[in-house]
Amino acid sequence: MNHIVSPYLTFAYLIASVCFILALQGLSSPTNARRGNAIGAFGMLVAVVGTLILAGIIDYKWIAAGLIIGSLIGAAMSIWIPMTKMPERIALSHCFGGLAAALVGVVEYHHRGASIDRFTMGALGLEVFLGFLTFTGSLMAFGKLQGLIAGAPVTWKGQNATNITMFFGALVLLVLLVIDPSRAVLFYAMGALGLLVGVLAVLPIGGADMPVVISLLNSYAGLASAATGFALGNNVLIIAGALDGTSGFLLSMKMSKAMNRSFANVLFGAFGQVAPAADGAAGPAANYNLATVEDAVGVLTASQSVIVVPGYGMAVSQAQHAVRELAQALEANGATVKYAIHPVAGRMPGHMNVLLAEANVSYEQLFDLDDINDEFSRTDVTLVVGANDVVNPAAKNNPGSPIHGMPVFNVEESRAVIVLKRSMNTGFAGIENDLFVQPNTMMVLGDAKKTLREFIAGVKEEAAA
Amino acid sequence: MANELLFGLFIFVLAGFLGHYVIEKVPPLLHTPLMAGTNAISGISLVGSLVAAGSGWGWTATLLGFVAVTCATINTVGGFLITDRMLKMFKRRGAKG
Question: How far is CA A461 from CA A297, A329, A420, in A?
């Protein structure tokens, strides 16, 4: 069952495992993270070179082709992709990871056929099911992020029942396979079921829930790798898979918590069912304070403390550089500027941090929810750039709201609030936002980047006058 | 066989615990690089793909193995590169870039 023959190879895998753990440890602070990442890459190199030399490989033609093509595509995808496309990029890599694991499982089964023992069979079954599920699930997530598929949740009657049935169906297949590993039809049926479940499980999930879904797919990709490790009796795969699986799982827990929703609630779609009710209700949106750029510039220049709350809208309008320029202009004016980053702002964990880092914002200015929430009451003006649900006071004071209980920023406590928004349509989740109708809130409608440019010009003009 | 499986499980559970403690210490600031980085690391399934593609198990294995090698290489090479590109951007005020 074991491909590994050489003790040197086992040793190479041990080095790789240690390197991977050091890589993750490096991520505990931005100062050590790059070095950690380099150590991780070194570990990977050791494992791959060791395998090429010591694993009894006899034919290098196709391996070389795969390594070259993969390296070229991987490098291209990493060097030229804009930071705003990072969620799409991550979804695609889950997709590749899942496919690779699933294919290795298929080859393994195909090669060993009926001689497979039960334990290996169980691992292979899980590997192929999780691998294919991650593959199509991530493709769907990518499609939704990229706008190829409708981003809004797609729901139909009996959906959850169908999904649960298929999940248990896969489980039954797995048990049957373990009992009799020679039934190839069942094995391939299990793979096909994985492909189907991936599509159907992501279809009902809306864009605002993407951070949870992407994290969860991250976890599945890791578990698929770990299952590969079990099937091949390869410890480094088990360790790397366990690390990736835990990481994705922890992230999805954190994301669900930041939305005050249970895992099950995200997976079996609640937002989708709530949204239509709020749609089209003109409601209180009529009494918001529409402000001009001049009004907003007046407030901004008069402020000594400013907090910026970015959201997905900032990514959409690629406004991160304009945000930083405005902050610099305000700082030149004597104001302090901080950024309040909600865990689920954007479409993946840490999305806003990466964008602001790209725009050269010092990470010391980026604050988490808990670290900054008490400061709003002492702040002159809060500038909301394309964020919606994370600044909605209904989460605190309206038990009927679908987002009630979600931890949100106390933005309304600051002296003034300026909200940059494309239009007065309700947000992705289709929920009215009470913040927009508060007397101290000024709404400036239009493309965030364009508006920010006007702000910058205005602030600089005032400073010069 | 059962022993081998249990040994694997042993490693899996301990690695999971270790992962939990290490990853808990990663600040939300670096959650995106964490995802990209773990992705690169789980591209280690590349070693399985290499064996599948290069062990002379017939054309089906070679072909599927080749696709798997390509996918896993995209993830490892691309994953470490993009993680580095992101981490490079995280700077303190005044640091040159």
Answer: 10, 10, 21
